[in-house]
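>> received
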Amino acid sequence: MAAGRTPEGEAIDLTSVFEGVGAYSAGKIDEKRLTTLEQYACPSCGSCSGMFTANSMNCLMEVIGLALPYNGTALAKTEERENLAGVQLHK
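>> returned
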């Protein structure tokens, strides 16, 4: 999944939301800021944008040749992902 952007143009992602929850709990940001992070960090379909266990292993399998090229690294809703699937969704 691609990273998101706040209405002000700041690049944010899933990790931004996790950090935002901690910052909100610690009183460092307000509820409005946390809501903005939650609403804009994950703007499309695709797997979790964090490089956690499943995504890390998927990318590793791609690199060592046990998964199709771009299987772990092509973003959702891109030409690379469509080519991997063998379909053309966007013109």
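>> The CA atoms of residues 11 and 37 lie 10 Å apart.
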